Amino acid sequence: xxxxxxxxxxxxxxxxxxxxxxxxxxxxxxxxxxxxxxxxxxxxxxxxxxxxxxxxxxxxxxxxxxxxxxxxxxxxxxxxxxxxxxxxxxxxxxxxxxxxxxxxxxxxxxxxxxxxxxxxxxxxxxxxxxxxxxxxxxxxxxxxxxxxxxxxxxxxxxxxxxxxxxxxxxxxxxxxxxxxxxxxxxxxxxxxxxxxxxxxxxxxxxxxxxxxxxxxxxxxxxxxxxxxxxxxxxxxxxxxxxxxxxxxxxxxxxxxxxxxxxxxxxxxxxxxxxxxxxxxxxxxxxxxxxxxxxxxxxxxxxxxxxxxxxxxxxxxxxx
Length: 319
Ligand SMILES: Nc1ncnc2c1ncn2[C@@H]1O[C@H](COP(=O)(O)OP(=O)(O)OP(=O)(O)O)[C@@H](O)[C@H]1O
Ligand SMILES: [Mg+2]
What we know:
Blueprint: H1 3-15, H2 35-45, E1 49-54, E2 57-63, H3 64-72, H4 80-83, E3 91-92, H5 97-107, E4 111-115, E5 121-126, H6 127-156, H7 158-161, E6 169-175, H8 185-196, H9 201-221, E7 226-232, E8 236-243, H10 251-254, H11 264-268, H12 276-283, E9 286-292, E10 296-304, H13 310-318
Parallel strand pairs: 3-4
Antiparallel strand pairs: 1-2, 4-5, 6-7, 7-8, 8-10, 9-10
Helix pairs in contact: 2-3, 8-9, 9-12
């Protein structure tokens, strides 16, 4: 395994929640069972241990080696509640997998019941479920990386491969008013598209900031949403956000840093500092805001690619 792969596993362990590596349908032992019944349960369900659960709360745990020992001691008919291990280590479903790994090292764990905030059982992590899901995630992230490389390669050649006097690429994104669940999605798609076109990371970051602010303004301030139109050219990217109301009454005033008409509830969500347009102006090469009050608003932003423009790549290829 290369160093990078080890880093990937570590990253996964520290960023994956227990909930996503557990088995959710847990075989449980009922407190009314005898040792003999538990033995049959384990054989039938092919498991080597299970929690004893009463009212969805874990009151004990029994493993196959406990059962073997109890059989040797002739305790087949003992109630399981009398012989189970009552000190049960559990892990919270929101915890990171790293916590589970710590338990493996410390006490030779083979299964760890997963609990909700109220202590109720929601799943179980075993070495098996853990390894399976980590391998699956490794595979997914590997495939994603490979796909990303391929896309970057293909997309970045569009300006070289398509012959015209002037090629540009138009991307359009619809943004709905008050849709906070999806807010930010358009800007992250735009960022990713520019990355694939091999626009310089520094410029992608600046575009990301500007487009995020512009997208949030559509979400927060418009009556019926709007759209973001991105035009990628060889030498620059032109971005326009367009909406159909309510429009802006005093253009000079809204451009002043700190001015906002955002209502209280929006401010409670952390928006409405009145800094969006100022930020866009700061990070962009050109910004133009126009509006007809009562009709709609149009914001145009330009980022120049500078000396490392996509056009130069084309020119050097031609040469
Ligand atoms: N598309 C739009 N339609 C109508 N009004 C807008 C639009 N975009 C901006 N505005 C007006 O411009 C003001 C300033 O916008 P700006 O993005 O700078 O700050 P904000 O959105 O109020 O707060 P922040 O961006 O810091 O969360 C807004 O409060 C709003 O009145
Ligand atoms: Mg704003």
